[in-house]
Each structure stands twice: as C-alpha cells, then as structure tokens.
Amino acid sequence: MSEQNMQDENSVATEQNSMVHRIALEVKRREPSSINELVLDNCARCYSIQGLTDEFCNLRVLSIINVGLQSLAKFPKLPKLRKLYLSDNRLSSGLENLEGCPNLTLLILAGNKFKSIDELKPLSKLPKLSILDLMNCEVTSVDGYRETMFNMLPQLKYLDNADKDGEEKDSDDEDDEDEDEEDNENGASDGEDNEGEEEDEYEEDDNKTGLKALYNGTFEEGDDDDEESYEGNSDEEEEESDEDDDLSEGDVSAETIEKPSKGEKRKRGADDQQDNVVENSNNDDDGPPHKI
C-alpha cells in the first residue's frame, strides 16, 4: 500500500472518529431519541456526516459549523428538525438530502461554496422554510438573486437577514417564531390534557350523580321503612291497647260476679241462718229437746 493511500485511510478514520466521538460526548448515556438539540461545531476534518442517524428523531436544533463538511449524502431523516446551522463549510450541492426534514424553518448556509441558483432549487421542497442565510456565498452576486429566491421560495420571510423589501430582520422575530412553535406544540398537548380533564370531570359528575341518586334512594327507602314501621307499631299498640281494655273489662265483670255486694251478702247470711234453724228443728224431732 502506498504512502498516499495510507494517509487517505488515516484521514477517513480521523474524520469518522472525530464526529462520532463528538456525538458520543454530547449524547453521553442518553438515548438518541431523547435529544432535542445537538451541537457538533468545530470538529476536525469532518468531510461527511458520520454517526448521525435517524435515531435522533426528536432533534429540533442541529449545529455543524466549521467542520470542513463537503457532502450531505448521509444526512439522516429528522422529521422534527426546525433549525439547521451549516455555515463555514465547503458545501456546494447536495441540498436534496434535506428533504427528510419537512419542518425545517431556519437554514444557515453562510460561508459555503454555492455558486448558482440551480444548486439551491432543492430548497423548494422544504415547505416551512422561512429564514435562509447564504451570506458570503458566490451565489449572492448573481443578477436578480434576491428576487429569484423569493419567487422560488414563496414562504420565505427573510433572506440574508432581510425581508423581500430589504428591511433588516429583527432578532426578536426569530424568538417570536420559536415562541409560536412552542405555543402550538404546547397548545396541542394542552388540548389533549384538557380533553382528558373534561372526561375525568364528566366521569366524576356521573359518579356524584349516581351516588346522590343512590343515597337519596336509600334515604327515601329508609324513610318509607320507618313510616311503615311506625304505622305498624301504632297498629300493634292500638291492638294491644284494645286487648288490654278487653281484659280489664273482663276482669271487672269477673270480680263483679265473684264478689257480691254487701246487701246480697247480708241477705245470704240471714237465709243461711234460717236454713240452719229449720235443719235443727228437724233434728229436734228425732231426740229430746235441747235447752236453749
């Protein structure tokens, strides 16, 4: 193997190890899908994308500034990526590899090697791109550059830090866009939370209504039972009272029969004495008279 080939292989190995190592340092022990922002600036000799994969599916901000990047051939699909910083590299083509980032709103390509507008046409496949920076690229000196770019990208708000009328972009505008994006995302999640809360409240109301009806029914049944019990007890008491009255009347009658009045007792006593005299007289006829 020639010395030149060995140098090329060493160069490729250094390139791969540089970006891969940097990604490992940035990610540490976290899952790639949990990363929202990744900064790989100033990696040495990174001519192509290495170590960055589709696993970074929730990445929103990616910065690869001043790494010597010449190709975007292995750029991953990042559906949630919104901001991409690729300034001060050696890119001159390959923007079609960014089509896997449909939510990209900001793209910084300043200080690269783009020379013609044709090389920028793939950007029309990014429907949400609103901020584009190509400052210090040769393409900016092409006649009709700004007008052509705004016509090609109708959704574009700012090109090279100025709007279609040449008014410079306020730094607060970008912050406002970020806030709007966050509000939209939070609004969607809040909407889901509110729906969940409304469902919970609805279920709680149903439970309260059911419990209320249950308790009311129980109390009403209890009241009915109490009333029936009270009425039953009243009837029983009345029956018992009637029985007591009957018994009392019976006792009185019995006493009246068994216990004669005083006059009757005296009369009965006289009659008894008269009967005794008659009996004694009958006995006297049989024997000698008795002295009284």
UniProtKB/TrEMBL annotation:
Q: Which GO terms describe its molecular function?
A: histone binding
Q: What InterPro entries does the record tag this protein with? A: AN32, Leu-rich_rpt, LRR_dom_sf, U2A'_phosphoprotein32A_C
Record-linked Pfam families: LRR_9
Name the record gives this protein: U2A'/phosphoprotein 32 family A C-terminal domain-containing protein
Q: Which PANTHER family match?
A: ACIDIC LEUCINE-RICH NUCLEAR PHOSPHOPROTEIN 32, ACIDIC LEUCINE-RICH NUCLEAR PHOSPHOPROTEIN 32 FAMILY MEMBER A
Isomerase keyword on record? no
What does the UniProt keyword field contain?
Answer: Leucine-rich repeat, Repeat
Q: What organism is the protein native to? A: Rotaria sordida
Say yes or no: keyword Magnesium present: no
Family indicated by similarity:
Belongs to the ANP32 family.
